[in-house]
Specification:
7-stranded mixed sheet; 84 residues; binds FE2/S2 (inorganic) cluster; 7 strands; Ubiquitin-like (UB roll)
Length: 84
């Protein structure tokens, strides 16, 4: 499948989570807090909410709980993310 990470095209595989794609392509950082501190995958099972990203324009999406789909646009989130 083809997805974009921060606007850059990359390849993902069916059954992968967004977190897995981010780890493979970018490392562990998924977002920055409002103060600029980096956050990333911590629990990997949907509990800690540290792995939030923007998926297809929707902020606060847990990357560890979201399976990639073809054409998905993933952006690392800054602060609370873009307004909905
Ligand atoms: S890594 Fe904890 S909710 Fe995703």
């Amino acid at each position: 499948m083809n997805v974009t990470l921060d606007g850059r095209p990359t390849v993902a595989y069916e059954g992968e989570t967004v977190a897995a794609v981010l780890i493979a392509e970018e490392g562990l950082t998924t977002r920055q807090t409002a103060s600029g501190a980096s956050r990333g995958i911590y629990c990997g099972m949907g509990v800690c909410f540290e792995c939030l990203v923007v998926v297809d324009g929707v902020p606060n999406t847990r990357s560890c709980m979201t399976l990639v789909t073809d054409g998905m646009r993933v952006e690392r989130q800054k602060g609370a993310g873009p307004p909905r």
